[in-house]
Specification:
heterodimer, A: mainly alpha, B: mainly alpha, 1 helix, transmembrane helix (chain A), membrane (chain A)
């Protein structure tokens, strides 16, 4: 772990891992889609609408897992000052926001035919909306600071404060009466979903996760390059103050 | 008989495809742009101190 604190070594590792995880994710999603559309049966109550579950649930898991990853990175920034910890946080935030948005939209598209409404202010839906807003706040805070190191510390504190929402999202269906159904995969006593639907779901989730890892590594690689551009732009501006520093505005 | 909710299912899968495509394109275009900016700066003679010694990394 400490060995890859060196950004150059990390870039070398990322160059090899991004295509591997990308290919694994594409394969997982392709197999998952085949199982969803040609093997998995329709639900006895929901009919074919249950097919929305195979993207809604992995998106929800990734939305929460991504915030947990950001919280671990935040500890890395504040406690160990690991050079890649805030890079990891910054790269994860837009991915988490995208997957949480996908969870909200697909949930709405599933809710309308099954519940008769696009949205209700129940504890699960509201806490997931708060999670999405937390991601937006984190991204806004990153852009409010000129210096990435200062931004990293401020974002780390905000991320850790916001982490309180993750157990609320997870247990909201147990703590309150919600229209949203309770947990049916990761629960005490085992999954309540039939294997014919569980396996396609887990394979889709695996594919989504592999693509997420590839995108996170790609985002970290881009953030390291962005910081190099910023540093070189500042050096160039110091050396030749009259020359235009074209790279700087884009290098935040 | 086709499922009466096909439109909802198709919309959900299209949304997922758009999110994946958007994230992949964003990462790829950003990478290309940053590599270009870095190359232009290096052409102008800007070098990091740690890049003084040639390395095998990216």
């Amino acid at each position: 772990m400490l060995r890859y604190a060196n950004p150059t070594l990390f870039l070398d590792l990322a160059r090899r891992l991004i295509p591997a995880f990308g290919a694994l994710g594409a394969l997982g999603i392709a197999v998952g889609l085949y199982l969803v559309f040609f093997v998995a049966p329709p639900d006895y109550q929901q009919g074919e609408t249950v097919k929305i579950m195979y993207i809604h649930v992995p998106a929800a898991w990734l939305g929460m897992a991504c915030y947990s990853l950001m919280a671990i990175s935040a500890v890395g920034t504040l406690v160990w000052r690991h050079p890649l910890a805030d890079v990891s946080q910054k790269a994860a935030a837009p991915l988490g926001a995208a997957f949480t948005l996908l969870c909200l939209v697909t949930g709405s598209l599933w809710g309308k035919p099954m519940w008769g409404t696009w949205w209700v202010w129940d504890a699960r839906l509201t806490s997931v909306l708060v999670l999405f807003l937390m991601y937006c706040g984190v991204m806004a805070l990153w852009n409010a600071f000129e210096d990435p190191a200062r931004a990293g510390r401020a974002v780390a504190i905000l991320t850790l404060v916001g982490f309180i929402n993750i157990p609320i999202v997870k247990f909201s269906v147990d703590w309150w009466n919600t229209l949203h159904q309770p947990a049916s995969v990761f629960r005490m006593g085992g999954s309540t979903i039939d294997a014919s639907m569980l396996w396609p779901l887990l394979i889709m989730a695996g594919g989504f996760t592999a693509v997420f890892v590839a995108l996170h590594l790609a985002g970290m690689r881009n953030e390291i390059l962005r910081r190099r551009v910023r540093t070189l732009g500042l050096l160039a501006a110091q050396r030749e103050p009259e020359a235009p520093v074209e790279a700087l505005p884009e290098a935040r | 008989m086709p499922d009466p909710h096909t439109g909802f299912i198709v919309a959900a899968y299209l949304m997922a495809a758009a999110v994946f495509l958007g994230l992949i394109l964003r990462a790829a275009l950003e990478h290309r742009s940053l590599k270009g900016q870095l190359a232009r700066l290096e052409q102008r003679g800007a070098r990091r101190r740690s890049a003084a010694k040639p390395t095998t990394g990216a």
